DNA sequence: AAACCAATGATCCATATGTTTCATACTATA
DNA sequence: TATAGTATGAAACATATGGATCATTGGTTT
């Protein structure tokens, strides 16, 4: 339990001034915060051997509008688990009161921030690692992401291009995207990115690859995504945002982490490859730091 | 998230034979187990966008006596999860260096999370809002992002495409990307995305547009980026990561927030446009939820 | 076309919930 | 001892909740 819970500290601080019954209630709340979040007030009162009204009185005593708020706070604490990082983010939400328009922005960004923090959970990390391992041992990496997931697939492929020539982006004009699979073998792996609603074409191409013996790994949004069943490894990314659209930011973050893990797997080779890219692009005069003069 | 939860596995196993509404409910339950434990059934139903009765039906479908049992099981999982989590963390600490890879991942993800949280600062929010305002009043929005920023530009354009036809992506085969600017006027705005190293072509096209009177807004990485000087509005995004590569996750997040602000500006129109898209794509049979059968 | 069936939505119901009110018991001060 | 003030318990209240019922829909089969 994180000791940095403001409500808990308040209860402890005011404990001495409480009446005996309030103390008994407060003590139970302190000792069993999960129960407060999970069961009804009357039940908590029964466990604490206290009248239901006492729980309400406790909440009011603490300056809260009612018992519901007390439970809500315990629920929030439980939701975030021991992830102190997300807790800090959440804390800021209540502080700031800004313009209406930037409220939307703030909510979205803080939500995304929390989602990324959550990706640090052991389960996600394990999946990341396993997927990276699978990709490392591949001869070729076919990257597939259609429609909304195109951006993620493209970027993953772009970064991988900087590291070598193992990556093949399954995307081409006139529906020729899948053609690169012609010479795919069982030594290869395909990274499929797809979120709800799942593009039919992506599923079909992935299925085709699988039947050719290509190993499938995926980034998708749910345990019941059709990709899960056909993948050797899957990384789950949240996509909810309080806007009209699903967010791809967590998916991109995952993709970038995967690239990093792959790059770090062989640092010397990575460094060499990057230097090579630098030289090549500087010869092509690709980059600039000044506003171009035009005549 | 404990992957070995019998109830979860049962839901996953039976997911395929559920009716669409049940699937929708089940999907939410799988993706948000904490909410099931913490809030009322009706609220869960609201979040999952299903009828309250559907939640009851889901519980019965799973062989449980009622929804209460479903919540009880999730509550139990959460209870043991909260103190089980600390144990897992401790375990990881004891294991020590065994998982170097997930250390990298954790660092990256937490760093990204912090960067997104930082974007909520007043200055960033002001810039976001100003940029969104500028984009709203535009006749056409030309979107330009080359090389590493292509993914961001593409995704912004993709989302804007769902909302209407104001967006034009400046990207084409054979170096024809800038051609769409032929009919650009001073009523139009160009959104340029570029980070260091700045692609020379992007700067040139932007400069060309500016000389045609097109308003420039940009997403870039520094106050001294060449884009700042030529832009009416600029949003700064961090790009540092402890990997070899610059991260584009914050830039994507910003782009998504911009899209949301634009969408929210005219909710009725947005909803109508999205519905239109839905119909169109469903007629094209674009999406699927099942693994495609192949013969 | 007709008839059936499962699936979904809308409505109603009994109950449990959080809160309030009121009466009683307790304690401290004069 | 009398009394004011508080703490506690019991009961009543409006409401929200989970569950059940019935009508409607949409797709299949005969």
Keywords:
homodimer, 295 residues, alpha/beta, Arc Repressor Mutant, subunit A, Rossmann fold, 3 domains, five-stranded parallel beta sheet, 14 helices, 7 strands, elongated, DNA-binding
Shape of chain A: elongated
Poorly predicted regions of chain A: 82-98
Largest interface: A-B, 96 and 101 residues
Find the CATH superfamily of the largest domain in chain A. Glucose-6-phosphate isomerase like protein, domain 1
Query: Main sheet of chain A?
Result: 5 strands, parallel
* Average residue pLDDT of chain A: 87
Give the CATH topology of the largest domain in chain A: Rossmann fold
| Major sheet: arrangement of strands of chain A | 2-1-3-5-6
Helix segment count of chain A?
14
Number of domains of chain A: 3
In quaternary terms, these chains amount to: homodimer
Helix fraction of chain A, binned, reads 55-70%
The total count of strands of chain A amounts to: 7
The rounded Rg of chain A comes to 26 Å
User: What order do the helices and strands of chain A follow?
Assistant: HHHHHHHHHEHEEEHEHEHHE
Architecture of the largest domain in chain A, according to CATH?
3-Layer(aba) Sandwich
CATH class of the largest domain in chain A equals Alpha Beta
The percent range for strand residues of chain A is 5-15%
Terminal-residue CA separation of chain A: 66 Å
Question: Which class of secondary structure composition applies to the elements of chain A?
Answer: alpha/beta
């Amino acid at each position: 339990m994180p000791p940095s819970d403001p409500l808990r500290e308040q209860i402890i601080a005011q404990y001495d001034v409480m009446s005996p019954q309030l103390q008994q209630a407060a003590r139970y709340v302190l000792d069993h915060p999960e129960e407060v979040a999970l069961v009804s007030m009357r039940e908590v009162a029964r466990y604490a051997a206290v009248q239901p009204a006492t729980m309400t009185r406790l909440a009011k005593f603490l300056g809260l509008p009612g018992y519901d708020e007390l439970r809500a706070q315990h629920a929030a604490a439980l939701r975030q688990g021991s992830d102190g990082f997300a807790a800090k983010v959440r804390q800021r939400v209540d502080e700031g009161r800004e313009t209406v328009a930037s409220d939307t922005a703030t909510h979205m960004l803080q939500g995304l921030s929390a989602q990324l923090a959550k990706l640090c959970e052991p389960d996600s990390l394990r999946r990341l690692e396993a997927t990276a391992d699978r990709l490392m041992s591949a001869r070729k990496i076919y990257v597939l992401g259609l429609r909304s997931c195109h951006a993620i697939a493209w970027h993953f492929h772009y970064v991988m291009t900087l590291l070598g020539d193992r990556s093949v982006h399954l995307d081409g004009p006139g529906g020729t995207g899948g053609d690169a699979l012609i010479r795919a073998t069982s030594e290869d792996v395909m990274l499929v990115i797809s979120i709800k609603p799942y593009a039919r074409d992506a599923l079909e191409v992935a299925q085709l690859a699988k039947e050719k013996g290509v190993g499938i790994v995926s980034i998708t949004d749910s345990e019941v995504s059709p990709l899960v069943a056909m993948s050797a490894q899957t990384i789950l990314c949240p996509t909810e945002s309080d806007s009209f659209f699903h967010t791809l930011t967590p998916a991109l973050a995952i993709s970038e982490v995967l690239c990093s893990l792959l790059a770090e797997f062989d640092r010397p080779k990575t460094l060499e490859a990057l230097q090579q890219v630098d030289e090549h692009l500087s010869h092509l005069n690709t980059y600039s730091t000044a506003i171009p003069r035009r005549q």
